[in-house]
Design brief:
It contains 5 helices and 7 strands; from the N terminus they run E-H-E-H-E-E-H-H-E-E-E-H. By secondary structure, the chain is α/β, with parallel strands linked by helices. The protein has a domain of about 100 residues: Rossmann fold, CATH 3.40.50.300. It has a 7-stranded mixed beta sheet. Bound molecules: adenosine-5'-triphosphate and magnesium ion (MG).
Length: about 150
């Protein structure tokens, strides 16, 4: 499923829709080249779930946590990680039952086969977002439905 994102407002709208449709405690991998908008999508997801603080890429610390009334958002940037398997030994899976969402920039679907991948790709007119379900079944068909009235 691919959606065009012509502006930051489109990314915000995508985040709002994801916040409404993604089940709790899910692992979401944000992929795509540098500057594609991965951190921006995390920012809007946190905003959509009611977090009002600062969202920045976890560079020096590996993990940022954003508490929301729906549960914790866990934000990881795996860009500098030589071996993402390490995230398992660091306790990534312990977060999943508790967290609202665990978001991993540069997350590798081969290392995390039970995840939703959101691939962002720059295009001539902005960006595209492609949703791919790995392993676990995500309600992508629900996501693709037209807005219902009300
Ligand atoms: N949909 C969009 N429309 C216009 N600009 C955007 C959009 N999404 C992101 N940007 C802009 O692109 C720039 C890079 O975004 P961002 O930092 O989110 O990318 P990233 O994929 O996290 O990069 P990195 O790989 O370095 O972590 C920012 O200035 C951001 O405002
Ligand atoms: Mg980033």
């Amino acid at each position: 499923m691919t959606t065009p994102l012509y502006s930051l407002e489109d990314t915000r709208a995508l985040a709002q829709k994801l916040a409404q449709t993604l089940p709790e405690g899910r692992l979401v991998l944000l992929t795509g080249p540098m500057g594609a908008g991965k951190t921006t999508l995390v920012k809007f997801l946190a905003e959509a779930l009611g977090f009002r603080g600062e969202v920045t890429s976890p560079t020096y610390t590996l993990i940022h946590e954003y508490p929301t009334e729906h549960g914790l958002i866990v934000h990881i940037d795996a860009y500098r990680m030589a071996d993402q398997e390490e995230l398992y030994s660091l306790g990534l899976e312990d977060y999943l039952p508790e967290a609202r969402l665990v978001l991993v920039e540069w997350g590798n679907p081969r290392v995390f086969p039970d995840s939703l991948e959101i691939h962002l790709e720059p295009t001539q007119t902005g960006r595209t977002a492609t949703l791919r379900s790995h392993g676990a079944i995500f309600p992508l068909e629900r996501f693709a439905e037209k807005e219902s009235p009300g």
